[in-house]
């Protein structure tokens, strides 16, 4: 009897000591939460959210138009839907994801916009219900007037699924009982696709073409910050791209910049008909650098007058 009682007592003492040690110990530190960009004020300015699969896609496809909007005080946000953690021939994983996040943050400071990188592995994006909810919430939070994405036919599965996810959200952003935790949008945004060269099942149509002549140097400055991708060659680069002599390094930088300048000149040539439509025959013929966009069938379908309001620099 006595021994059973003492065992009971010892048990109670031990539980008491454990409780005291838990109460007295420091709480475990919270895992660091990445800071999310602040939401812009509701000041009547346009609100644009651009989705790209990787931390460089939005900058490449819409860096120029973002500069034009931002310079007029409109609110632009770039979202990289994956963290880019396999996008380098040498580096990978967390360190690469952090490096690429820092790169797009630097680019965003040059462009004057907000940027966010979602923590989804590069090369592994799927059009899941969870991701549809994430995209829907991001569009609603930003109270977007315009949403941009890749088209759903594209060589890269992550690009394709960003296109699918954004299209899947195009109706859901207005449905109050889908993700009821974030207020639905009253007006359906205009959804636009970035330009690409893919032909099947249907080629890209340049419904809107924008002259970048006023901002091209700044766009090239922003692209210059994405070193892991363009200077070092990204997933398919190699050590051969990185000369050790400073003079050759400077030359490589100039070559990359010149290649991007040539690329946006190519777009001006390719989408000349659309440029002439929006800028008039004479001005449109002289545009040197361009970006172009296709209007998605889902979401609001803007007429010419509304497009001119959404792109207030068209024709300038
Ligand atoms: Zn990409």
Features:
10 helices, binds zinc ion, 316 residues, single chain, alpha/beta, 7-stranded mixed β-sheet
Order of helices and strands: HEHEHEHEHEEHHHHEH
Strand content range: 5-15%
Extended strand count:
7
Structural class: alpha/beta
- Shape estimate: globular
| Distance separating the two termini | 97 Å
Strand order of the largest sheet: 3-2-1-4-5-7-6
Biggest β-sheet strands, sense, barrel: 7 strands, mixed
What gyration radius follows from the Cα positions, in whole Å?
A: 25 Å
Percent of residues in helices: 40-55%
**What small molecules does this complex bind?**
zinc ion
Kindly describe this structure:
Strands 3-2-1-4-5-7-6 form a seven-stranded mixed beta sheet, sandwiched between helices. The N and C termini lie far apart (97 Å). It is built from ten helices and seven strands. Helix content is 45%, strand content 12%. It has 316 residues and is α/β, with parallel strands linked by helices. Helix 5 links the parallel strand 4 (146-149) and strand 5 (190-194). Zinc ion (ZN) is lined by residues 53-54, 57, 156, 159.
